[in-house]
Amino acid sequence: MCESVNTQQQIPVLYVRGTNYEIGHAIGKTFCNLISNFFELNEDFKNSVLSFYGTPVGKNIYDESLKVANQRFPHYVQEIQGMADGSGIPFHHLYLLHIENLVPASDSEPENPNKGDQGCTSLITNTREALLLGHTEDASVAMSNNFYIVSAEVLAEDGVTVIENFATLTYPGYLPGGTMGYNEHGIVHSVNSIYPKKRFPTRTSYLFLLRAILGAKNLREVEDILRDEGSGTHDGFSVNVISTKDSSTPGDVITACNIEVSASQNGSPHSDLYIEYVQMGNSYAHCNKYLRCPVEEESWPGASSVERHETLRNFTKPYNLPTVQKILSVELPNDGKCSKYSIFKRSFGPDDPYETIAVGIFDVFAKRWYLYRNPPDKSGPVAVLPMDF
């Protein structure tokens, strides 16, 4: 049984240097126990994802997705292979994590009303006084003490040339990049999951695109990666980006924006991007629902995002650092109804399986990444990592 989120005031950090395979191998070897524990605790994976993989339809989706990954991002497939070899977990188990949202819900399985309560909340502030990205990372309670920071310097196959340098919060068994982090080029990002009704198994896993933006040099490269011309994402998501030294855009060096990403619905081989820039002197918030993209979404995540956006109306923009800390700490009363719409969410039992496992605040001007396990307006950070860019 996982302990509650606020019982372990620690976050492991791995500093690693090597090729993609070597990075993956080091992650797998270092965190093999966390990865094994995650699979042991993940009943959904065993009962749903792995079972679906055992069907002809599931195996075909797996094979087609892996084929696309090998064609478009073979170095990240090698990273997963290294993780498998280092941890002793079968490769197909790890790759299945990256396409688990392609598993269809069983017709006989009732919709879980708590399924959508796992949503993350992201805030951007872009003012002369403060440049901030705040983010609550919400996940299954099985993840509560089952994640880590990867700070990696990735080398080309020659073992000398540095091709990526980043730090990011990472889940066991997954490629880095799917939560929040930054890189040496001053790209800071966080991710909001979104749940479109229609997904496309033969396109690129969105988690590979999020892994790729850890190497982006500017906002234009981020957009190109997310657009993924020639394939496009298989799913929907939202990325909040601060580009601190962006030579790809005119005017201010600093660029802040939210990018909603969806699979092209008309069959075009690329992702569709819907970008909103955070102008100087303003703040912005995004949860787990499209605000601009017209793609139809699943119904179950909507209420939580709508309620969180309503809560945000109580705070005056632009948000300074104390306000960001206060917003990301909002907990509604545990009345069995409203509590699941908290911004800082706690799990109150087996029927309420999601909670905020970490809060990150990137203070770009101070070049500090503050990481909390408890509400940041009531507790100190567990870790303060320097942002080297």
Layout of helices and strands:
Blueprint: E1 13-18, H1 20-30, H2 32-41, H3 43-53, H4 56-72, H5 74-87, H6 91-97, E2 122-126, E3 131-140, E4 148-155, E5 162-170, E6 180-183, E7 187-193, H7 206-212, H8 219-227, E8 237-243, E9 255-263, E10 271-277, E11 282-286, H9 302-312, H10 321-327, E12 354-363, E13 368-372, E14 383-386
Parallel strand pairs: 1-4
Antiparallel strand pairs: 2-3, 2-11, 3-12, 4-5, 5-6, 6-7, 7-8, 8-9, 9-10, 12-13, 13-14
Helix pairs in contact: 1-5, 4-5
How would you portray this structure in words?
- Residues 128-373 form the Peptidase C45 hydrolase domain.
- The chain has 389 residues and is α+β, with helices and mostly antiparallel strands.
- It folds into 2 domains: 5-102, no CATH class; 115-146 and 173-386, Penicillin V Acylase, Chain A, CATH 3.60.60.
- The protein has helices at 20-30, 32-41, 43-53, 56-72, 74-87, 91-97, 206-212, 219-227, 302-312, 321-327; strands spanning 13-18, 122-126, 131-140, 148-155, 162-170, 180-183, 187-193, 237-243, 255-263, 271-277, 282-286, 354-363, 368-372, 383-386.
- It has an 8-stranded mixed β-sheet, with helices on one face.
- A hairpin with a 7-residue loop joins strand 9 (255-263) and strand 10.
- Helix 1 (20-30) runs parallel beside helix 5 and helix 4 (56-72) crosses helix 5.
- It is globular and about 50 Å long.
